[in-house]
User: Which sequence fits this backbone?
C-alpha cells in the first residue's frame, strides 16, 4: 500500500520541523519544501525568512528525518503580490496585513500548486490551528489547543478547495510540548527562538522599509477636523495609525485622535474620542469558509 504524500512548508523554525517529524511518524511520505521569498540588498542576514541560516537549519532537519528537501525561488511572485499589496495598502491610507495575502497567494496557492504537481495529497505548515473533516466532506478550521499561540485568524482566507489538502500537526499541542517533541526527535531547531516580525522587514520598523521602497508616501499634508478645519501639519500619512493620540503635535483643549486617513487629499482627519467610534464597518474580500453564503443575518 502506497503511503499518502505530504509536502511540509519548512521555515527553519521549530514548528514546521515538528510538523514534518509528526507526519513522518504517522506514516506519511514527507517532502520538505522551503520558499525563498525575499532578499533586500544589505539586509540578507537580518530578514526573518529564508536567510542562509534558516535554510541551513531546514536542511539539517530534513537530513535528520531522512526526507527530501527542496528550495523554491518565489521572490518574484512574493514581491508582485505580498510586498506590492503591503505598499498599495499604505498608499490607500490603510494598515495592511501582508500575512493574509502571503497565506492566500504564496503558501496556499503558489506552494500548494508545487505540492500537488509532485503528486502530494496534502500540504502541511507549522501553524497553530486545527482542522476537522466533517461527514459531508467539508473541513472546519478550529482554534489551536494552545489559545495563546492560535493562528486561525491568518488562515481564515483559505477556502474548502485548499482546506481539503491542509494538515496542521502542531495545532494539537501546546507550544512547550512542541519544543519537547522536537527534542525527543533530536531536531536541531528545538531551542530556536520564535519569530514575530513581518518576514521582509528584516527586523526593521515598517516606516524604514517604506522609506526605502516608497518614499513618496512621506509627503507632508494637512491635519484637519471632521468639519474640515485645518489645525496642523502631518509628515506623511504612513506615520500615523487610526486611534493614535500621541505624537500629533497639535494644540487642542480636548484630546484628539486620528479618525481616518484620506489618502486622495493627503489629509489626516482627527476628532474626539466620541468621534472615533463608528456604528458600522465595510468589509471586502470576504471568504465564507464553509463554502456557503449565510442566508440570514449573523452575529459577528
Assistant:
Amino acid at each position: 500500500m502506497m503511503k499518502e504524500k505530504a509536502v511540509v512548508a519548512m521555515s527553519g523554525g521549530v514548528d514546521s520541523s515538528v510538523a514534518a517529524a509528526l507526519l513522518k511518524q504517522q506514516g506519511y511520505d514527507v517532502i520538505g519544501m522551503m520558499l525563498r521569498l525575499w532578499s533586500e540588498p544589505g539586509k540578507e542576514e537580518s530578514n526573518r525568512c529564508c536567510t542562509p541560516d534558516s535554510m541551513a537549519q531546514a536542511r539539517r532537519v530534513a537530513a535528520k528525518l531522512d526526507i527530501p528537501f527542496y528550495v523554491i525561488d518565489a521572490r518574484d511572485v512574493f514581491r508582485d503580490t505580498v510586498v506590492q499589496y503591503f505598499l498599495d495598502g499604505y498608499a490607500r491610507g490603510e494598515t495592511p496585513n501582508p500575512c493574509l495575502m502571503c497565506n492566500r497567494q504564496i503558501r496556499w496557492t503558489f506552494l500548494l500548486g508545487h505540492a500537488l504537481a509532485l503528486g502530494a495529497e496534502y500540504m502541511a505548515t507549522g501553524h497553530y490551528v486545527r482542522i476537522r473533516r466533517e461527514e459531508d466532506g467539508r473541513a472546519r478550521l478550529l482554534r489551536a489547543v494552545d489559545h495563546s499561540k492560535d493562528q486561525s485568524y491568518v488562515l481564515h482566507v483559505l477556502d474548502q478547495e485548499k482546506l481539503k489538502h491542509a494538515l496542521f500537526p502542531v495545532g494539537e499541542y501546546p507550544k512547550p510540548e512542541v519544543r519537547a517533541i522536537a527534542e525527543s526527535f533530536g531536531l536541531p531547531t528545538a531551542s530556536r527562538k520564535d519569530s514575530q516580525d513581518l518576514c521582509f522587514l528584516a527586523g526593521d520598523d515598517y516606516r524604514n522599509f517604506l522609506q526605502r521602497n516608497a518614499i513618496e508616501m512621506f509627503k507632508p499634508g494637512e491635519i484637519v477636523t471632521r468639519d474640515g478645519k485645518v489645525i496642523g501639519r502631518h509628515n506623511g500619512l504612513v506615520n500615523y495609525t487610526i486611534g493614535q493620540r500621541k505624537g500629533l503635535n497639535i494644540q487642542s483643549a480636548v484630546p484628539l485622535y486620528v479618525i481616518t486617513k484620506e489618502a486622495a487629499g493627503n489629509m489626516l482627519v482627527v476628532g474626539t474620542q466620541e468621534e472615533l467610534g463608528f456604528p458600522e464597518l465595510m468589509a471586502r474580500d470576504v471568504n465564507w469558509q464553509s463554502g456557503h453564503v449565510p442566508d440570514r443575518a449573523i452575529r459577528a
Q: What stands out?
A: The longest strand covers residues 29-36. The chain has two domains: 5-206, 219-300. Residues 98-117 form the longest helix (20 residues). The chain has eight helices and eleven strands.
